[in-house]
Specification:
Two copies of one chain form a homodimer.
Chain A lengths: L4 H5 L7 H11 L3 E3 L6 E3 L1 H20 L3 E2 L5 E3 H4 L3 H7 L4 E6 L2 E9 L4 H11 L8 E10 L13 E11 L2 H21 L6 E4 L11 E8 L5 E11 L1 H6 L2 E3 L5 E3 L1 E8 L1 H10 L16 E5 L7 H14 L4 E3 L6 H10 L4 E5 L1 H5 L2 E6 L5 E5 L4 H26 L1 E3 L3 H10 L3 E6 L3 H11 L2 E5 L18 E6 L3
Parallel strand pairs in A: 3-7, 15-16, 15-17, 20-21
Antiparallel strand pairs in A: 1-2, 4-6, 5-6, 7-8, 8-14, 9-10, 10-11, 11-14, 12-13, 17-18, 18-19, 21-23, 22-23
Chain lengths: ~475, ~475
């Protein structure tokens, strides 16, 4: 009884993209809901993707001189309130512990929504001299922000992330860190996730609570909405002054440190799903796929078939390819559909006739391309190339999609028309006035995603027609 | 100005062991206090040790078929209350969130003290058939238990750990898992941390809240007090019935699953410190040392000295040895003391005369043994052997200490006398009656650490003189 899980499992993207997304998250077993709203369970397949991202980025962080630490989960309310802009940004989203060990607490404790204040307090204690600088710390943890509307991976009351917090003796060094980490994020997106990003600076309105400048990378989803996917912040000396983070410099002067922070989260999983997925489910870029190759034995009850499948598995595994034989008691057709749903980049089919002919079938998830491979060749080498090709193809597809959906617009009617009928990014010139930004958001639903540093604006602002200062990418966004 | 940090930095162990411990934790920069009592900061050097432990264990877990997941931080109070013994055990230690996003919550949420209830709820949802079993999940996270008395790594209101939660179709399989994971814990202690453990079963009184049986590994500290260092629990079907975790078995019958859980925490760092440390600070077993070899250049301002130090560093690093050149502007003597305080297993000294003679000095932290190495030999190979030797030596030292401090006692006066004058483990026969266990604890301060399965008891209980059932190791404990 072959049941085709394709048809009844997920909603097509063009029918209801939001429902498609939820279907994929659930049916590909990336996550499940818990009984607390906005708190999801990261299931093994979803968590394994996050682990791969963690390993990749952690290596990059350490190569660039960062060290991991772990800060407390709870922040005294008074500590969170030390920097004015910061507390204003986060107070409405806080989860507050008021009882501990059966007693009411004297001071309420907030579950970290982000850990700037904890790092500041610690740095103020341990840094005395220029010799102690820079400090470049990072932590992997979960944070809690009470959200009204939540969606798996995209917006949750709890999510997993890394938060880097660094302090430096000079402004120059801190600014270089802010941009350098954005580069690492951008490279991770490109090299690991096959995702092209638009990068730039956030406007004053959209920047992080307490930052002087926020930089962002933004990805474009299949439904042409933008997804903020990673941000880095330059703090200047704002927190340094609020927390008295001073050091004795070489010139024997007490100075305030310059500070940065930066983070990416499990939102990246949402980006992978929404950029690469199709109507049959997930399509995973090979380098982030927990299973890169699934081997499906055909007529597996026949002598030698399973043996051969495991033989191939062992060969590939020994060379570092993440491979799995699906030896469950389902039909091959069912297994193919499941492998498609789970987005496994390559499927190998091998049955008695293939074995007789010393061959196997290799099928690519991304485009269904199917070919017969002669097993007297080097399968590992060939598959490594196939996986690389798939990565490149997926990146190029996403890049083409991105480029096709960046629209330069020159007046406000055109802006509204293109937004309405085409979506994507609207590249427009802006005067720098928050009023225009707010008006555009209110009237069209599009927000400023980023200021494109170095891009030359037209004469006039798209909105008010006063002199333009910046090129901004606007889009509807998650 | 050479200042000897040895003398003024830490209290000798025999003067005040507790103070020595705190001094080492702070001065070796393993941790710092935060402004919330019982919530510590894991500093880079301490956290790096935890990462090495994580990597080692995670590999073992995955090799044995376990998968990582991430469960929510918060548990509805009603969910935590579903299993009666469990809630009774944890209710007094809970941190409770009562406000979220500026509103009072309808139902209070508890920060996980442990996640059995979350795993149970999830498993009940996703398991239907014997085909879905076993489920062998693990998560790395922090948990919160409101403690009155806290000490770095040993007892905190927040600590880092892993918690494994598995369900199985048969009792046999679940029992094998419970013991198998204890083996993996025990091997980790031996192979990675150079710590010999005493293993056994906890008494009814000491077992985990909700478990049928708890197994433990217990380490013996320098002050002859025991430290519970890892536990595995067999739950039978208790939680399965409370949470309705059923599956359709091959025989077409609905059955309850059999369950286990198991965990080790950052307590292991406390064990490493208190077992191996000495009056000069930390002494780290090489396999868990974040820095295995420190290279101290002597007269580093002289031409070629730093170059040579970096050359050696590169050679060793390329072969996977964790090595660091200390090129700071301190004196060599100061660097030696710092390296000692931080417990770095091997120190290499190299100066102009060494370079002239194509040699370097190699000094072992564990015993101060110093030798001259001819650099025409293979330094990496030699150091690998040295590091292995140090590991073996440290294990043997700890094992000798452990064996010397297990005292078989045959009557209650002897028990009290040995406990008072010698400390360590008291191997005694016990009737199995909780009254005797409680009396011993009350009168002597020693608790039952574990029942030694397979060890034959004497005729009579050490306490009541009724018929003995078990051999129990008693000790004062952390």
């Amino acid at each position: 009884m072959v049941k085709n899980i394709k048809n009844d499992a997920i909603t097509p993207r063009d029918v209801d993209f939001a429902q498609w997304y939820t279907d994929v998250c659930k049916k590909a077993e990336l996550m499940d809901y818990s009984s607390v709203k906005g708190f999801i369970i990261y299931r093994p397949y979803g968590y394994a993707m996050w682990e791969i991202i963690q390993n990749y980025m952690d290596k990059r962080f350490k190569e660039t001189g960062h060290e991991n630490v772990y800060m407390p989960l709870l922040i005294p309310q008074s500590l969170l309130q030390k920097e004015a802009d910061h507390v204003e940004g986060f107070a409405p989203e806080c989860a507050v512990v008021t009882k501990g060990g059966l007693n009411d607490l004297e001071e309420p404790l907030v579950i970290r929504p982000t850990s700037e204040t904890l790092f500041c307090e610690h740095y103020a204690k341990i840094v005395n001299s220029y010799r102690d600088l820079p400090k470049k710390y990072n932590q992997w943890c979960s944070v809690v922000r009470w959200e009204k509307t939540t969606r798996p991976f995209l917006r949750g009351s709890e999510f997993l992330w890394q938060e880097g917090h660094t302090i430096h003796a000079t402004e120059e060094e801190a600014r270089a860190e802010t941009l350098g980490m954005l580069d690492i994020y951008n490279e991770t997106a490109k090299e690991l996730l096959a995702i092209p990003m638009v990068t730039g600076r956030k406007t004053e309105k959209e920047k992080f609570a307490g930052a002087e400048e926020t930089y962002t990378m933004e990805a474009l989803m299949h439904d042409k909405k933008a997804l903020q996917s990673g941000t880095t912040h330059y703090f200047g000396q704002g927190f340094a002054k609020a927390f008295d983070m001073k050091f004795l410099d070489k010139d024997n002067q007490q100075k305030y440190v310059y500070q940065t922070s930066w983070g990416v989260s499990t939102r990246l999983l949402g980006a992978i799903i929404m950029i690469h997925g199709d109507d049959n489910g997930l399509v995973l870029p090979p380098r982030v796929a927990p299973i890169q190759v699934v081997i499906v034995p055909v007529q597996q009850q026949k002598e030698g078939v399973l043996d051969k499948a495991y033989e191939l598995e062992n060969i590939l595994k020994a060379q570092g390819i993440r491979v799995q034989v699906d030896s469950s008691d389902k039909t091959p057709g069912w297994k193919y559909s499941e492998a498609e749903m789970r987005g496994i980049p390559v499927r190998i089919e091998i049955g008695p006739r293939d074995i007789q002919n010393n061959q196997c079938m290799i099928v690519r998830r991304v485009d269904g391309q199917k070919e017969c491979f002669d097993l007297s060749g080097d399968l590992t080498e060939y598959l490594s190339k196939v996986l690389d090709d798939i990565h490149q193809l997926m990146y190029q597809k996403a890049e083409t999609f991105l480029k096709e959906n960046i629209h330069s617009v020159y007046d406000y009617d055109e802006f509204k028309d293109v937004l309405e009928n085409q979506g994507g990014y609207l590249r427009a010139s802006w005067c720098g006035d928050e009023a225009c930004e707010a008006k555009i958001k209110e009237e069209t639903g599009a927000t400023s995603r980023c200021i494109r540093v170095g891009d030359t604006p037209e004469e006039t602002c798209i909105c008010c027609k006063k002199k333009a200062k910046h090129v901004v990418y606007f889009a509807k966004a998650y």
